[in-house]
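Researcher:
Attend to C-alpha cell order:
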Amino acid sequence: MRFAADSMLGKLAKWLRLIGMDTVYLGKSDVRKIKKALEEGRIFLTRNTKLYDFVLKKLCTEDDIYLVQANIPREQLKEVALKFNIPLTRSFRLCCVCNFPIKKVSSEIVKDLVPEYIYHTHKTFYFCAKCGRVYWPGTHAKRINETLANLLPVE
C-alpha cells in the first residue's frame, strides 16, 4: 500500500514512513501532482473537504482517496492505520524525511556525519543515500516505539 499526503498532512506522512509505508508528501497539491500519485497507485490522503470532493469527482474512485478526520498527527496515524489495517510497528525501511529506502551501514561510513559521542556509543547506523540523513537507535527511537505501542489498545 502506497500513499500520497497533501499539504495538511506533512507530519502524518513522516509517521507513515516510520512504520514503513511508502508515502510521498505533495506539499501544495495541484491536479498534476495528485494525478501522478494516483497513476502510481497511491491512495491520496487529505483533510481538505473541497479538494476531496473535487478529486473524487474528477480523478478517482472512493478506493483511491481518503478524507482524514483527525487533527493531531498521532491520531491521524491511528485513524489511517485502522482504516487500512496497517500494523503500528516501527520499520527502518524508509527515510522519514524524503521517503527513500534507507540501508544499514558500517559506523565507518557515517563517522564524519554523526556527533563523536554518537559514533563511539552506537554500533548500528542507517543511511539515506538520497538526502544524507543518518539514523541510529537512540532515545528518540525508543520514544517512537512507545508512542506507536500506545496508539492502539491491547486486546
